[in-house]
Amino acid sequence: MQLLSKNMQQFSKKMTFISVVVILAACSSTPPASPDIHYAERYSVSTHGTATQIDADWWQAFSSPRLNELMQLAQQQSLDLLISTERVRQAELQMRIANASLFPSLTASASSGESRTRVDGQGSERGESSRASVGISYELDLWGGVAASRASAKAGYEATRYDQDAAMLSINAAIASGWFQWLALQERIATAHKNIAIAERVQAIVDARFRNGAATAADVAQQKTNLLTQRAALLPLELQARQTQSALAILLGKTPQEFVLAADNLLAITVPQIAPGTPADLVARRPDLAAREADLVAANANIQAARAALLPSIGLSANAGKTASELFALNPATQTSGWTISLAQTLFNGGRLVNQKRLSEARRAELILQYHKAILTALQEVDNALASADVSARQEISQQEIVINAERSLRLTEARYRAGTDDLLSLLDAQRSVFQAQDTLVQQRLSRLNAAVDLYKSLGGGWSLAKN
Fold this sequence. Notes:
Elements: H1 2-13, H2 18-25, H3 65-77, H4 79-99, E1 105-119, E2 123-140, H5 145-211, H6 217-251, H7 287-308, E3 313-326, E4 329-344, H8 352-419, H9 424-458
Antiparallel strand pairs: 1-2, 2-3, 3-4
Helix pairs in contact: 3-5, 4-5, 5-6, 5-7, 5-9, 7-8, 8-9
């Protein structure tokens, strides 16, 4: 090894001219490119009331302990999150493989053999030999191609890591929306049972009046149709509730058969006010946009690596060894050592390297357009979520007034019924109107909650590029 080190030192003294070439090669790097976007000063819809900044645990703003439990369970058992974690691990290993090019390659070998030589009329001669050697080789990165490959692998790792954050945000949003959907279905199923009970009571009254000659067969058939319609409307709600629960089970890494949800009051869940910030801030707040930007960085590095492949490559190697004529005996032995510098340049390969560079440039152009489109889509998603939150809030206020008036009408009808100035059918119809108004109010609250979840998701859910 001392002999090998001495040879490498002698070789390095003869390669001082390479520093000049390295300086010239540094000028050939590809400058990064990004889309030119004009950002508005604010979004189209402004928030009402006191808006709060977004935290990483944004779902806690809904003040639902059961939702918090579901989110905690998802972070531990969600198969989608575990899959994305493995992808990040693979990208990290790819980056480590690329970083291995920083170091020289060191090899060692040993061999032993026997040979026989036949001489005419004198029999045969037998010989033995053993050899041990160590060698080191290194390719000089004169044009930055190896460094570009490492930069591309690092950018790919960062893109995968950002994609994992985006997947986590999407899964959390899906869990929150699924949970609210299931609660709304439970409320609507309860309302449907109340409407069926009212229809059954009305059916009994119509049947009694028909038997006494105060109602016609058409009245009986009409009310029977109404009752059957109410019962038929219950079945899709129950099916949708089971399907929603099963979908939540898959998101949480549970089997649908073992997963059970506990009911909660949907109308008691807080609808948070969210500060959207400015459109220009969105690029640094969404992990999917950060991932696309990392893809663009990798594409720039790939162009530089493709350009470097067109230039000559210079390799350094040195070796030292011992050879002995007796088996496994290295003394007395013959020592060998040496170093080599190699220069290689591809003269003709059918345009493969040139077209590879052009392909990398075309890929970068595509990624710039995709990144541009992703930013515009993200801005659209925020605007749509803000508009949906604003409209659904107004609709809920209107529906609350409808519920108040329906309940007032029910109280007046009950008073007239007790006073004998109104019949039972009018009272039952007023009750049904209240239940239907309450059912619509539940759906409006669900729309507000889903709009809030969509807004959290479109704004990045508290994610920040500066924190990663």
